[in-house]
Amino acid sequence: MNATRPRPLRDPAPMLAHALREWQEHHPEHGAHHGDFWLFGYGSLIWRPDFDHTERRMARVRGWHRALKMWSRINRGTVEQPGLVFALLSGGSCHGVVYRIARAQAPATLAQLWQREMATGVYDPRWLRCDTPQGPVRALAFTLSRRSPNYTGTLSAGQYEHIFRHAHGIYGSTRDYARQTLDSLRAHGIHDQALEALLKHAP
């Protein structure tokens, strides 16, 4: 596999500092909601969170939807053969999970997440309302703008088939990533008809 890596679109460090500052401002150490740090997972964070958490809930975000429409040139593809990963795009709604992370662990956990999700500064991290069976929480989510150069736009069935057949990055193939996500969603009772339809193009 070619070791060429894309240049970051933006410096991830100030974005991390901003996310932490927003959380601390809304959840002061001695405030009514001290200790609560929530993260929304809608793709691989459902089946491979890779961080400690004190609680996990099913959740729904309104105004955003899960879409396999972000180019991946590191994790699930390369610069020469880009793969795809999920992003939250505006419109619709999305079922996923939220994780509660202990306050003392939040800065280190977020820094770890930044290395995994924000290596090229592609996502727009946002604090979103997530409805859960136990009530709403405000959680950090990784969204994508349609103005981003990493947004794929509309792809044809043939393009998806080619990507599923050939794209492979440091964490494995786009095809396996999509299938693992679909299996995890089904295990949680979440039905994603759009993803099911896309995987019909996987060899």
TrEMBL record:
Tell me the GO BP annotations in alphabetical order. glutathione catabolic process
One function term, GO molecular function aspect:
glutathione specific gamma-glutamylcyclotransferase activity
UniProt keyword annotations, A-Z: Lyase, Transferase
Q: Name one GO cellular component term.
A: cytoplasm
Q: Which InterPro entries match?
A: ChaC (IPR006840), GGCT-like (IPR013024), GGCT-like_sf (IPR036568)
Query: Matching SUPFAM superfamilies, A to Z?
Result: Gamma-glutamyl cyclotransferase-like
Known EC number(s)? 4.3.2.7
Q: What is this protein called?
A: glutathione-specific gamma-glutamylcyclotransferase
